[in-house]
Amino acid sequence: MEKLTRFGVSMEPELLKEFDKFITERSYKNRSEAIRDLIRDNLIKKDWEEGSKDAVGTITIVYNHHKQKLTDTLTGIQHEHHASVISTLHVHLDHHNCLEVLVVKGKGSEIRNISDQLISAKGVKHGKLIVASSGNDF
Ligand code: NI
Questions:
Q1: Considering the domain boundaries, does residue 7 fall inside one?
Q2: Residue 92 alpha carbon to ligand 1 centre in Å
Q3: Residue 101 is assigned to a structural domain of this protein
Q4: Does any domain span residue 103?
Q5: Integer Cα distance of 40 and 18 in angstroms
Q6: Is residue 123 left, alpha or beta, with left meaning phi > 0 and alpha meaning psi from -120 to 50?
Q7: What φ, ψ does residue 73 adopt, rounded to 5°?
Q8: For residue 65, how far is its CA from the centre of ligand 1 (angstroms)?
């Protein structure tokens, strides 16, 4: 394990109470681990928004495959960005609906672009992009 540096944090009692409730709900063992994750989460978000660093992520979409041309459109977008789409998982949820999870890798701005195109495609009912660190910076 890396050497850790200790530092003091001051906050209002009410805020600390809410934070302790949060860490219990999220099953954190202690405040330090929760604070580390919150900091990492914010730094990853910042890096990603700047679009300059490599990131990895998942794009989840739910759509009706009976919608005309939608499957072609979604497949076309993925092929256009084949270098960034590492893997896909397709689940036939029911007679009409499909769930697709794409694992993507690349510059933050590129990942965001792919996600925006897929999620905004007409007929996609729900979509969510989750960006994570490529693991090299934290
Ligand atoms: Ni399907």
A1: no
A2: 4
A3: yes
A4: yes
A5: 20
A6: left
A7: -60, -45
A8: 6
For ligand 1, the distance from its centroid to the CA atom of residue 6, given in whole angstroms, is 50
Q: In this structure, are 37 and 82 located in the same domain?
A: no
User: What three-state secondary structure class fits 134?
Assistant: coil
Side chain identity at 136, as an amino acid letter? N
Give the chain's domain count: 2
pTM of the model: 0.73
Q: What are the mean pLDDT values of the chain's consecutive 10-residue runs (138 residues total)?
A: 86 94 94 93 77 86 94 96 97 97 92 94 94 71
What spacing in Å lies between the alpha carbon of 40 and ligand 1's midpoint?
Answer: 35
Task: Please report where in the chains the tokens 């979509």 appear, as a residue.
Answer: 127
User: Domain residues for 37?
Assistant: 13-50
C-alpha–C-alpha distance, residues 67 and 48, integer Å: 33
Q: 45 with 74, same domain?
A: no
17/101 Cα distance (integer angstroms):
37
Asked if residue 99 belongs to a domain, the reply is yes
